[in-house]
């Protein structure tokens, strides 16, 4: 019985040693893994969109800070300093690292310090995995800021329906008035001929229109006021629309550093 207990204790102790060694080797493997390897692209995309996308593109285009395409080749310091640079830029600069110093001299004077990001080393690894392998963005230069340029705005080919209908009605009124004037003149001449009187003298449409307007002063005055009011309203609307561009969003990038 005692021999069995001793053997069992030795086996348990040996198993514990093997487990401890395996755990140490696993932890060492993780610590030796580069920040550019083993990241989760899908998780990195979510982290990038939440923490980085407002300033960076995964291409080499510039948004409010330089693009991150090729960052693995450009980064000239250690993985630990990359994580520290993202978590605490001032703290990383305080280390005196030459590459970090070059970043500060190049960007901080123009853009200012970037804000610290609350991400872990594993988060940074996932973000870098996404930056190096973006599933839905081609790594090409992009100059599209998402803003509408005045010169690129589509021309609106629309017509003012109220103005069009007003012109149509005015033309129809003039045609009816001219036709009615001609018919009235013919009927008048027919009656005068029947009564043995001389026919009306030939006159132009303009002369007859002037005579009709004089004889119908009230109607002509009301019509004139309506036309004048319509013209004033349309003129005012046209002047108010001069230089007004709907949907125009001028580009105003935020000038602060958020680059590596």
Question: Mind sketching the topology for me?
Answer:
Elements: H1 2-32, H2 41-51, H3 71-74, H4 79-87, H5 89-93, H6 98-111, H7 121-132, H8 161-194, H9 205-215, H10 217-240
Helix pairs in contact: 2-7
Descriptive notes:
This protein is an all-alpha fold. Helix content is 60%, strand content 0%. The longest helix has 34 residues, at 161-194.
Mean pLDDT: 73
CATH class of one domain: Mainly Alpha
How much beta, percentage-wise? Answer: under 5%
Under the CATH scheme, the architecture of one domain is Orthogonal Bundle
Largest sheet: none
| Intertermini distance | 67 Å
**CATH fold field value of one domain:** Cytochrome Bc1 Complex, Chain D, domain 2
CATH superfamily of one domain: Cytochrome c-like domain
The succession of helices and strands, N to C, reads HHHHHHHHHH
Please compute the radius of gyration using only Cα atoms: 42 Å
Q: Figure out the total of helices.
A: 10
Question: What is the number of E strands?
Answer: 0
Global structural class? mainly alpha
Shape: rod-shaped
Which residue ranges are poorly predicted, with pLDDT under 50 across at least 5 consecutive positions? 22-31, 138-153
- What percentage of residues falls in helices of 4 or more residues? 55-70%
